[in-house]
């Protein structure tokens, strides 16, 4: 991690207070004393924004754990329906037994009991699951399942703190934007459903390294993240176009080589020693049918006709390719070079929206990217509300399908509405990000004349290969020093008189 000196904000560039530029943040800050005024005290040197955000993230994670207590106490073990009606389902305790960890089977090397299959997770996630099983104490099977979930929750809490801290430190002058991550309700609700937070934490750390102009460290972390989940490799796609536009081919090549090397270092031993077990994740992803949360499921349910899985695989791949091409065109033709976080959010959103399955914890992939791409509370909360509705919708739908003739829960039409809300919310946030790219003067991150605070070597770089534009300054027609700047250190026009108790944000 960078030292305190490296991350210190210059005195002439104060930390941006979101309560001075975001109406929703200002209204919410009334709970802690209101927006920061001219004479606001920002706390001791020990209570820095990054530490506050980390503590808030841990607190929200703990609330998410508390929400799982009905399942922890009894619902995981006393029938399938109750864990859905209480919306507290988690894969973790079920896979402790179902994937052989309770029987000390070695992932990828040992076949599952009574089956001819292997663990269907990427290698680094499998290692994470195995380490948690080593730390799980003995006892009755129910106790061991509970403890396995608890051990994993503790390890995932560390990942959540890493995500919050890395997000806070990506934009040196905007650490408070990471409160979007720390306070995201969907983040807390889905954090312990599966092991996605490992890949999200590695991706957040990679974004931090890129923002510090460390392409090799970025590449290594992206490679490790891809060894835990497939989606992080997609970030190399928009980065290619951004580096192309800025002429940073050397830095991009270093990042790609670092990613390839790190991925191979993790995967190659298992690939050579247990090839059948290693390939299970990839064959499972191809052979998996249309599943919960995807628009493909809505199509099959509404038409009553199945779609061949090969057709879905081909169509989904083509849609992702078209989406990446569109993002590439946007990167090359936008009036100003887009920020890396903006395009990273868009490419992952395209992958999520076109996939043949959308598990509720996939929202974790987008939360830190959304906080960096468009740190506006209104739009973020609109999207989060849609995701929370989907979170409740999938469990109520499963309760409906599992409850037999009693039909307790959400019928098929209601679940389709929940899927539509998830898709609409994600598309809405994507539209806001695209608008910021096409109208860079409306991008709040750039309101003070900044270029790309998360861009690392791209930040402030001149355009070299911009399509349809004359290569030159990334700041547009006027250099940053000559254009208007917003003084976020000054109080708003309706600020309270000096001396009013005020929050630090």
Automatic annotation (TrEMBL):
Membrane-spanning intervals of the chain: 48-66, 147-166, 178-210, 216-242, 254-275, 311-334, 340-359, 380-402, 414-434
InterPro entries per UniProt: GT87, UCP010361
The keyword Flavoprotein is assigned to this record: no
Molecular function via GO: hexosyltransferase activity
Region annotated Disordered, chain positions: 468-505
Keywords in alphabetical order: Cell membrane, Membrane, Transferase, Transmembrane, Transmembrane helix
Membrane topology classification: Multi-pass membrane protein
Subcellular location(s) per record: Cell membrane
One of the record's GO cellular component terms: plasma membrane
Family under the similarity heading: Belongs to the glycosyltransferase 87 family.
Protein name, per record: DUF2029 domain-containing protein
Organism expressing this protein natively: Streptomyces liangshanensis
């Amino acid at each position: 991690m960078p030292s305190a000196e490296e991350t210190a904000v210059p005195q002439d560039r104060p930390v941006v207070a979101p309560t001075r530029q975001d109406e929703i943040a200002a209204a919410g800050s009334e709970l802690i004393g209101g927006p920061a005024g001219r004479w606001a005290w920002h706390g001791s040197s020990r209570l820095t924004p990054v530490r506050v955000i980390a503590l808030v993230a841990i607190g929200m994670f703990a609330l998410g754990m508390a929400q799982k207590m009905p399942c922890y106490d009894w619902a995981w073990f006393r029938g399938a329906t109750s864990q859905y009606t209480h919306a507290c389902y988690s894969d973790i305790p079920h896979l402790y037994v179902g994937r052989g960890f309770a029987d000390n089977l070695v992932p990828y090397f040992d076949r599952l009991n009574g089956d001819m299959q292997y663990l269907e997770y990427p290698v680094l996630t499998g290692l994470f699951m195995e380490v948690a099983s080593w730390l799980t104490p003995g006892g009755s099977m129910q106790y061991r399942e509970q403890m396995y979930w608890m051990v994993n929750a503790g390890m995932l809490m560390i990942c959540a703190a890493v995500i919050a801290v890395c997000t806070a430190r990506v934009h040196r002058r905007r650490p408070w934007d990471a409160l979007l991550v720390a306070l995201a309700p969907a983040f807390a609700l889905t954090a312990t459903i599966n092991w996605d937070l490992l890949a999200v934490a590695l991706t957040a750390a990679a974004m931090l390294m890129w923002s510090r102009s460390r392409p090799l460290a970025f590449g290594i972390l992206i490679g490790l993240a891809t060894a835990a989940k497939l989606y992080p490799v997609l970030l190399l796609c928009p980065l290619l176009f951004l580096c192309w536009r800025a002429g940073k081919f050397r830095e991009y090549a270093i990042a790609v080589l670092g990613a390839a090397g790190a991925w191979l270092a993790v995967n190659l031993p298992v690939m050579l020693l247990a090839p059948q077990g290693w390939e299970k994740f990839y064959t499972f992803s191809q052979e998996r049918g249309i599943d919960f949360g995807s628009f493909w499921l809505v199509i099959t349910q509404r038409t009553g006709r199945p779609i061949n899985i090969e057709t879905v695989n081909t169509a989904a791949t083509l849609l992702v390719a078209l989406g990446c091409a569109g993002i590439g065109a946007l990167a090359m033709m936008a009036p100003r070079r887009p920020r890396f976080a903006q395009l990273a959010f868009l490419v992952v959103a395209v992958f999520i929206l076109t996939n043949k399955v959308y598990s509720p914890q996939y929202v974790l992939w987008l939360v830190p990217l959304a906080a960096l791409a468009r740190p506006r509370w209104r739009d973020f909360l609109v999207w989060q509300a849609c995701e929370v509705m989907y979170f409740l919708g999938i469990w109520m739908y499963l309760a409906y399908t599992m409850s037999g003739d009693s039909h307790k829960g959400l019928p098929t039409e209601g679940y389709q509405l929940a899927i539509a809300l998830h898709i609409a919310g994600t598309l809405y946030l994507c539209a806001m990000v695209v608008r910021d790219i096409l109208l860079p003067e409306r991008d709040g991150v750039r309101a003070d004349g900044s270029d790309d605070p998360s861009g690392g070597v791209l930040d402030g770089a001149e355009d070299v290969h911009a399509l349809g534009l004359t290569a030159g300054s990334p700041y547009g027609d006027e250099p940053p020093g000559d254009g208007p700047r917003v003084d976020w250190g000054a109080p708003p026009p309706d600020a309270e008189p000096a001396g009013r108790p005020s929050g630090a944000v």
